[in-house]
Design a protein that fits this description.
The chain is of the alpha/beta class. It is built from 12 helices and 14 strands. Helix 3 crosses helix 4 and helix 5 crosses helix 6. Belongs to the leucine-binding protein family.
């Protein structure tokens, strides 16, 4: 246990420093508020509920940074209707009980629309508050279908394929690989509890032979992995928000269950800082639910932009692409509505967006909204199963199975 505990403390410390470097502390030193650029009109205030210190910080800070960059890019190009976008930011720590007060504070600061960049459980709590406040919101990296399902879904939108689509893709993968018995290793966060409930309910294609849970701040998962091994699954699925827990899980599985196929959520694929902290070769063969396809020309353009901004070694994530697209979609809606003074008109403008060419997913993947379609994904090809190589970096699409691109 001492070796795992020591390694965990090193991993946790490094990841914490990485998160701080990316996000800072809420709306203070690390926030790097976008300037007005070349836009000269009165600012359009957009609120962002960003978890920068809670369980969702490992992915929220990545998306939050790119949202800021996208806003700056819009402002550098003259803004929206000649007006700059201005971000105001608060932090709910992925705590559902804090969401109402955070959203109310953002509106009191003049926000006319919101980005909900936090954990799924917290965003679900935001729905009824949005109805009370009467302003539309986009959840850039949300993946739980409940976020945009009735009730109180009139003002909330999300981009990515949901866990229902994930379940179909996993089932296709398991069938193709001859996997019938699945073991699960999960963290204890409320975000993952909600995601697991939705995901597993749609995965009748496999038998769950064992489910083991570990604390998000666990320093040793060897007992949980030993019990998984005793259940003799054909494969293991790790569900976590990522960060230190995911690294510890993959290190332990790689050691104790070598040779057993491993799958994971999008978290590990979208957190490059974690790859560097995993044991050498620990991620080799791991397959994760990805959304980045380098054959997409819009993805290629965003990669170039991100690397110019963040350095040539910057690894793009789905969080980056979804954050970028969220800003562009809101910009388009504001232009269609002719401004932000009428929230009903702005909401209708969001619903009128059709076939927006996404920056993530396969090359012909698009996003559309409607009065009864608050989930943007047009078909399953916003997803891709990606395999890690021996260098602990994604090496490309998994050859055994990929989701079909049909709408």
């Amino acid at each position: 246990m001492g070796v795992f505990a020591t390694r965990y403390r090193r991993i946790a410390g490094c990841l914490a420093l990485t998160a701080l470097a990316v996000a800072g502390c809420g709306d203070k030193a690390g926030d790097q508020k976008p300037s007005n650029g070349t836009a000269t009109g009165a600012p359009i205030i957009i609120g962002m509920d960003e978890d920068s210190t809670g369980s969702g910080a490992s992915y929220s800070t990545i998306a939050g940074k790119t949202i800021r960059m996208a806003v700056q890019d819009v402002n550098n190009k003259g803004g929206v209707l000649g007006r700059p976008l201005q971000l105001v930011v608060e932090n709910d720590e992925s705590d559902p009980t804090k969401v109402p007060a955070v959203l109310q504070k953002l509106k009191s600061q003049g926000a006319k629309a919101l980005f909900l960049q936090s954990g799924s459980a917290a965003i679900i709590q935001a729905k009824s508050t949005l109805t009370q406040l009467g302003i539309p919101a986009i959840a850039p990296t949300g993946v739980t279908a409940t976020l945009v399902a009735p009730p109180d879904n009139e003002l909330i939108y999300m981009l990515a394929n949901t866990t229902t689509d994930w379940a179909q893709v996993y089932c296709g993968a398991f069938k193709a690989a001859g996997i019938s018995k699945l073991g699960v290793l999960t963290d204890d966060t409320t975000t993952i509890a909600a995601l697991d409930k939705a995901l597993f309910a749609a995965m009748s294609c496999v038998e769950f032979v064992a489910t083991e849970k570990g604390a998000g701040n666990a320093s040793d998962l060897s007992a949980q992995v030993a019990r998984l091994k005793n259940a003799k699954p054909d494969a293991v699925l790790v569900t976590s928000v990522g960060g230190a827990f995911e690294v510890l899980a993959q290190n332990t599985l790689g050691t104790q269950m070598a040779g057993v196929k491993r799958f994971s959520l999008a978290s590990i694929g979208n957190q490059p800082a974690s790859w560097k902290l995993a044991a050498p070769g620990a991620l080799n063969g791991l397959i994760f639910m990805g959304s980045i396809n380098n054959e997409n020309p819009r993805t290629q353009a965003l990669v170039k932009m991100l690397q110019e901004k963040n350095g040539k070694d910057y690894d793009i994530t789905a969080y980056d692409a979804q954050a970028w697209d969220s800003v562009q979609l809101l910009k388009q809606a504001i232009e269609k509505a002719g401004g932000v003074d009428d929230p009903k008109k702005l909401n209708e403008a969001l619903q009128s967006i059709k076939s927006y060419p996404a920056t993530f997913g396969q090359a012909n993947f698009t996003l559309s909204f409607g009065a009864d379609k608050h989930l943007g994904a047009d078909g399953p090809c916003g997803l891709s199963l990606v395999e890690f190589g021996s260098d602990n970096k994604p090496k490309g699409p998994w050859a055994t199975f990929q989701p079909p691109c049909n709408k």
